[in-house]
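Two proteins were folded this term; both appear here.
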Amino acid sequence: MRIVLGVGGGIAAYKVASLLRLFTEAGHSVTVIPTEASRQFVGTATWEALSGNPISNSVFDAVDQVRHVRLGQEADLVVIAPATADLLARAASGMANDLLTGTLLVSRAPVLFAPAMHTEMWLHPATQANVALLRERGAVVLEPAVGRLTGADSGPGRLPEPEEIFAAALRAAEPSTTFPAHGSLSGRTITITAGGTREPLDPVRFLGNRSSGKQGVALAEAALSAGASVRFIAAHLEVPPPAGVDLTVVETALELREATLQQARDCDVLIMAAAVADFRAQSVSDTKVKKRDDGENPVIVLERNPDILAEAVEQRRNLGGPAVIVGFAAETGDDEGTPLAHGERKLKRKGCDLLVLNRVGRSLVFGQDTTEVTILDAGGAEPETAAGSKSEVAKVVLARIAASLGASN
C-alpha cells in the first residue's frame, strides 16, 4: 500500500517516527510530507532514513513530475499525524498553500487525521466545526487521547499512541463490502457499551463473566470506519479499547448504568454490547474474606442490578434519546425454550429496536475471534443471521442500524 504520511507542527511529531516505522515494517511504501513547522521538531534526515524516500514539503520540488498532484493521485491512504488545529482548519477550508494540503485536495484515497493540540484548542468551537466538516466529507478524525500535555496541562489533546493510529489507519484503508459508501454513518453519534462488569465481593474478589469485549470493540471500529463519532463505555476488556473513540471506563453495573443513561441522551444510536451482571453482592466486605477455622462457608446475599437496557428505552420514551437502541442477548437455551425463543421474548420485554442474539457456552462466542448472531427486529422484519469474524459481523450489525436510521428519518 502506498501511504502519504503528513506530519504537522506539534511536539507530538516525534511520536510519528514510531508510526512510520510500523508502516514500513508492515511492508508499506511511505512518503512523508512534513510541514515547515514540523521540521522544527523532527528533521528531514529522520524521515528520509526511516522511510527510505526523499522528503520535501515544497510544491516547487520535482516540478517536472507535478509532485503535488501525483502524490495524491497515487496514494492508497493519507494519514495526518499530528493533525494540529491549523492543519485541520486548512484541510477543512480546502486550502492548498503547501505540498501537504495540495495533496489532500487531490487525493481520493481514505484520509485519517490524528489530532494533537492543547485542550482549549481542541474544544474550541472552530476546531470542533472543522472536525465535524471533515467527518461529514468522509475523513476519519480520531478523538485525541486524554492525559498530560506539554507543560503542566492535562486533558483531551494528546496524540493517540502510534500503535492505535496504525490500527485505525489500516481499518480506514479497508474496502467495505457492507456499507454503500465510506462515511455512511457520517455525522452520527453512536454510544457503545462493551466488556464485562465486575461486582466486588471484597477488596480482592469479584463476581464477573466471560465477556472479552471483542465484539464491542469490533462494533466501535466498524462505526468509526463508517464515519460515526463513537462514545465507548468500557467495562473489563481483554483487548485494547479502539483508537479514536471517546472512552469512558467503568467497572460495575451501577457505574455502567450512570454512564450509559447520561451519554444516551444526545446520541443517535445506543448499542448495549456489554455483558452486564444481573446481580451484585448486597454488602461488600472492606477486608478480604478469609477461610474460617470452623469450616463454615461464607454466605453471599445477592441483589438485582438495574435493567439498563430497559431504562434506556424508558428514558427515550420520556425524555427523548437515540433513534435506534440495540440490545445484545447471550442465551444458552433450556427447558423453557430455544435461544431464539428466549431472544424474541427479550426483544418484546426490553422494548429496544434491534436485538443481537448470541448462542453462548464455554467454547462459543466468549473470547473467540469468530461468532454467529441472529439480529431480531422489533419492526417485524425477518430475523437476519450473520456469521464470521467479529469484525465482519459488526459490519452487518452496523449496516442494519444504518438502514433503521434511514427508515426513522
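Next, the second protein.
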Amino acid sequence: MTAPELVDLENLVFLRRDVLDQGYDDRHIVRMVRCGAWHRIRRGAYADGEAWRSLSETDRYRLRCRAVLRTAHSSSSLSHVSAAIEWGVPVWGVPLDEVHLSRVDGKGGRREAGVVHHRAPTPAEHLCDLRDVRVTSPTRCAVEMTSMTGVESALVSVNGLLHLGLTTPADVAELAHDLRFWPSSIGANLVVRLADPRLESPGETRTAYFMWANHLPKPIPQFQIHDEHGRPLARVDFALPEHGVFIEFDGAAKYQEHRRPGETLEDYVLREKRREERICQLTGWVCLRITWSDLNRPRELALRIRRVLESRIRADQ
C-alpha cells in the first residue's frame, strides 16, 4: 500500500508559542505577516510566506490540516475528505473549507473554527502514519467519504483509492457493512455497488455515474481495441460494443498527461484525431466525446447519447 508522492510539507507549520519561545513577541509576528515573510494559516499558526505562495490550493489545504493537528488532541487523526486529500486521491464536489478530524478522546463531535470533529470508534487498524501526519486508513477513508457527501462525489474519491490499489472493493464493502449504522451512511451500499477500480479519473467516474443515473447502457471501461492482426492498437475510455459506440472523456488533464515530450497541443489534438479515425475504420463504431461542461447539462447529454444509440440501431436494421 503506497500513496502517490506529494509535496513535502514537513516542518513548514510553526505556532505562535514557538515564536514566543524564541524570545519574539506578538508585534514581531504582526510585522512578519504584514511584510509577507510569514503567512497566517489560521489563528496561532504560520508558515513561511514564500513557501505558502508556491503551493497549490490542495497543498495549502494539506498545510491547514497540519496546522489544525498541531493544536488538536493527541488522539486526533485526519479523516474523511482531509484523509482523502492526504492519500493523494481526487476529490470532487466537496468544499475544502473545513478540516476533518476523527478523535477517540471520548468527547462529542462538533464543528468549530473551520474544523469538524468526528466522534466514532477508531481502532488502531483504521489508522496509518502517512508522511508526517496520522490519517485514517484508505478503507476507512472510503467509507467515511460515503457518509459526508453524495454518491457521485464519494465515488470520485473511492474509485481513486481503488485505482491506486490503496484498498480493494471487498475491503470497502466489508467495512461499509460493519459501519452500516453510522449516521448518513445510507448511500454507502450504492457507492460500493457502483465503485470500479478501472476508472482512472474523476471525469471517467462521473461519466460512468451519469450513464447509470440516466438509465443508459452500462459501458465497459478501458476497452482494448486491436488492429487487423490482433495486436493492441488503442484503449478507449468506454465502449458499448453491442451498440457500435465508444466514449472518450475529454478533460483538460488528458491534454496535459498524454502529450509526448516536446509535443505541442496542436500536435496532440491531430494525433488524437488520427487515433479516433483509425479506431472507427477498424471497428465501424462511432465516437462520443464527453466534456465537463456536457456533464453539467445532463438532460442535453442524455438526449444526445440516446439519439446516437438509436441511430446505430436503425443503421443495423
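The radius of gyration is 23 Å. The chain is about 45% helix and 20% strand. These notes refer to the second protein only.
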